[in-house]
Amino acid sequence: MSSIQHFKQTDITIANPIFSSTRTIIETAFYGNNVTTVSSLSEAYQLAQNSQDVVVTDLPVRHAEELGLPTDTKVLVSNDGEIVGRTAAARRIIGHSDIDQAYYDKILREAVFQIGAKECYKGSVFVGLDQEFSMQSHLMLPKKYAANLYTYLLNFQMAQESVSFYPNSEAIPEGDIYLLADPDWKHPDFPNGLVVVDSRHNCTAVLGLRYFGELKKATLTLAWATAHRNGFIACHGGMKQYCTANRNYTMAAFGLSGSGKSTITLAKHQNKYDIKVLHDDAFVISKEKGSTTALEPSYFDKTQDYTSSSEELSYVVTAQNVGITLNENGNKVLVTEDIRNGNGRSIKSRFATENRVDHLDEKIDGIFWIMKDDSLPPVMKVNDPCLAAVFGVTLATKRSTAENIVNAKADQLVIEPFANPFRSFPLAEDYQDFLELFQKKQTDCYMLNTGVFEGNDVTPQHTLSSIEKIVENTAEFKTFGPLKALSYLPIDGHVPPFEDANYIQKLIERFETRLSFIQRRKTINDGYDRLPNETEKQLIILLEELAAYKETLSN
Question: How many angstroms separate the CA atoms of 119 and 32, rounded?
């Protein structure tokens, strides 16, 4: 599929659903005399390289020519300042009952007027790497932020004639994405910045925010919404396929940044298997075919776990919010491991993973919800399709340094449905999509706790070795105490103490939290995210079974 950039003159009318006031305000800015088009990665590199706030390291970029860059390209570093993560509090979704579109249009008109006095660059990319799903996106920002434009063009597939899948794609009645950014914008009513999202009309303005992740996730928000409207399931997760002697096993892991999503997706398992990696962050699933398509070629990877001499850093093309020092040869190199600040990031090229693929025809064998809920053992299986979708809706996790958290604690347990805080359509529709995946495609469902269980850390080795057993079909699950719809994989040091009434009470409280979350959706935002009654019933059944079992422990 492909989106629309050029319109027949007769189709440019108020009756055309592609247009809106918000979209027209934003798109118009792209055609001003102050805007210069950047048409190649090499040009974008030169512009970023010469930006005043950029550090040109002495680290060479591997596979530069294959990426469309000069052979002598070096890793570029840009740092943001105080804020080094996404600011969810800045987001405003046009279409929500508490959002006055006319009010935000007025703010956008003034913001566009102000950016019209600045020299700007614009560039275009494809979001979606197969003709089954792809659309075009356009970014415009002030020239002083050329590093963010360069990183954006690297993160996605730069739009160019050599990309064959896009012109061969079937056109759909959706407009291209337009993304306007002005990091220097200020407004007294929005001290944390402002991100106005009109997902129905594929446009966003990112104002007063420098962090590159805002541009990436704003684009994905619109692409996921478009995918959702056109027969796909929007996925904030990682996907890989294991090729063993006996079978191929395709899995998807859903979790917030810092939960272990990338660790699981990119793990090589001591090269025991041939592994195909689709992506570690963003993809879509065809509801009709069960096939999957990656949305990005590159990886926006945390640098926290890499030392300065790590082989993984050899695939970095740009880095954000990391330090620089001189090595023994006097060369400028990266200071990683989050020494400078939390959430150091890099753009790593697709060459960081062997056997990287952009599309998989095979259906998904297993969905893994990644939790940080210490009431759950490291690995569980959900044996009922409806309950599997319910646990996706009530995915319990913790925030990380990837987010600029306003008026909340980073370490508190939160529920983030399907690990996707970038949804811009009703939650019930996501629930229905995943429910059908479990029912019709017979996809298995697992829950992974990658945090702490009963005071003991769950290590990556616990998680990865358990996944290997599932892939090899040797995992032996046991019924989860009194709950027959759930089972767990016994792991030394992490066996649930079902005889302990305090543990059962903790489970009850955590399931009550999930139930309360679902019940509150009935009234929050005028019931925009109200869920079917069956979701409540599933949790009530579990709570009744736990309560009855706890009674037997006290007798």
Answer: 10
pLDDT digits (tens, 9 = 90+) for 123-146: 999 999 999 999 999 999 999 999
Residues 6+ apart with CB under 8 A from 555: none
Joined tokens for residue 145:
């932020």
Please report the sign of the dihedral spanned by the C-alpha atoms of residue 405, residue 411, residue 416, residue 420: positive
Average of per-residue pLDDT across 268-289: 95
HSE on the CB side for 408, CA within 13 Å? 16
**CA 492 → CA 73, 260, 377, 424, 451, distances in Å?**
49, 21, 11, 42, 16
- 352 to 53, 155, 185, 464: CA distances (angstroms): 27, 13, 36, 20
pLDDT of residue 82: 95
Helices (H), 95-211: 101-115, 146-155
Between CA 444 and CA 416 the distance in angstroms is 21
Amino acid at 257: S
Q: What secondary structure letter does DSSP report for 364?
A: P
120, 35 in Cβ contact below 8 A? yes
User: Among 131-145, 295-309, 407-421, 514-528, whose mean pLDDT is lowest?
Assistant: 407-421
Two tokens at 114? 């102000």
Dihedral of CA atoms 220, 340, 334, 356 in degrees, nearest 10, equals: -30
Nearest-angstrom CA–CA distance, 406 and 89: 7
Tokens representing 135 are 């659309």
Measured CA distances, 190 to 65, 88, 495 (Å): 43, 13, 48
- Are 253 and 448 spatial neighbours (Cβ–Cβ below 8 Å)? yes
Cα angle vertex 216, ends 210, 219, to 5°?
A: 120
Structure tokens at 266: 């990119």
pTM attached to this predicted model = 0.94
How many residues are present in the chain?
Answer: 555
H or E stretch including 156?
Answer: none
Q: Is 207 exposed, middle or buried (0-12, 13-18, 19+ CB in 10 A)?
A: buried
**Contact at 8 Å (CB) between 536 and 512?**
no
- Bridge partners of 249, per DSSP, are 242
Rounded to 10 deg, the angle between the 385-393 and 533-554 helix axes is: 90
Nearest of 416, 432, 383, 400 to residue 513 by alpha carbon: 416
pLDDT by residue (tens digit) across 1-18? 899 999 999 999 999 999
How many CB atoms neighbour CB 50 within 10 A?
10
Read off the amino acid at residue 189.
D
- Which residues, other chains included, contact 100 with Cβ-Cβ below 8 Å and sequence gap of 6+? none
CA-nearest of 395, 467, 389 to 432 is: 389
Range name among 308-317, 393-402, 406-415, 479-488 with the lowest pLDDT average: 406-415
Q: What are phi and psi of 51, to 5 degrees?
A: -70, 145
Distance CA 265, CA 281 (A): 9
Task: Give dist(CA 224, CA 127) in Å, integer.
Answer: 10
Decide if 274 contacts 384 (C-beta within 8 A): no
User: Residue 522 is which amino acid?
Assistant: K
